[in-house]
Amino acid sequence: MVALQGSEPDRTVPALLVKIGRYPQHAGGVGVLRTLGRTGVPVHAMVEDRFTPAAVSRYAAGRFVTPTTGLEQPAVLVDLLLAVGRAIGRRSVPVATDDEAALLLAEHADRLSEWFLLPPVPGSLPRRLADKGGLHRLCLEHGTPTPRSRAPADHDGLVAAGRDWGYPLVLKNLEAWTRLRTPAVGHTTVVRDERELLAACPPGRMPSVLVQECIPKEQAEDWFTHLYCPADGGRPLVLTGFKIRSWPPDAGVTTRARALDNPFLAELATEFCRRIGYRGVADLDWRLDRRDGQYKLVDFNPRTGAQFRLLETVDGLDVVRALHLDLTGRPLPRGAQAPPRSFGLGQLDLLSAAVRGWQLRSLPGELLPRRGTERAWLCRDDPAPAAAEAVRFAGTVAHRAGPLTGRAWRRVRSR
């Protein structure tokens, strides 16, 4: 059992991994189970089926097979959460791993507080932060640097953004629930000219999309801050890291990163959260624009980030452990950020590295795990999630490669 230096968790208070939508291969959820389970806290999980990586973790004290799509009405999802809470049998600490779950917990705290311990975040704030347009307005209001952004009302406004700013541009789904119900793009997408812009958002019904200035990767660095803002408004725990690779490349989930203490960025995140009155866990993405030397806030996720286990203090405190300690009345150790180490996301990082190597015509950096690397899936004390993820990953590759192989074989036979 792992013990935090300076504060013991209340092991009588369970935690619940809360998910909305189908994404069974999520390393962050497994990380939640492991980080709290290792301290002796019983952690229950909402899972898509009994064979997801989270469901087979040795640290899952209970499994609730509750497949959702995000198309359900909020009242239905609240009733589902309340049923899970009653089944656990006592108030627990929910840990959201997607924006929709975070919004649901905040906006329905009056009902959910019967069975869950929740940070006192203003109910409407997580939705404003998860909304890309709302985040942009908050940044402007509070003087936090951010890339130029627009939420066009029609295709004329969409095309005008490209003609005013030039290309490339970044497209993002505007609102949290939109990405599940009527996504404008499958993920953060870079378009390089007007043709690609209109291909992504064809004429007709205008999608709910944000257009954002693209800071050239040759003149940028990608950073992130994982933080926890205590319920009493005290100084937050802020930990910083540097993104090396992602999937899809330059626009998706982090596949390789380094924990690097960045006091300037930590203070920037602290001040922004203080001004908006945020409480709870958050994952913020920043881009350092070398053209003007500013760290620009590009995303504020009002929930746990997928790579949160990379970042911890010398006391062994990460943001999920901080959430549980604080909401159960335990003090938070105030140690410095731990020395640098790496994070790797298994097969997805190999794909990202291969694409990056092909683009650069050279071997990518940080290809092999360093000593002390935090692996998203593989670990000695909980091997089953890595096996479950490998099976699902192979199935996904086979499913997507099948049609491509069939077309290639038909071309060969036709010659």
UniProtKB/TrEMBL annotation:
UniProtKB keywords: ATP-binding, Nucleotide-binding
The protein, known as: ATP-grasp domain-containing protein
PROSITE patterns to which the protein is assigned, alphabetical: ATP_GRASP (PS50975)
Domain of life, per lineage: Bacteria
UniProt-listed InterPro entries: ATP-grasp (IPR011761)
Keyword Nucleotide-binding listed: yes
Domain ATP-grasp, chain residue ranges per copy: 136-328
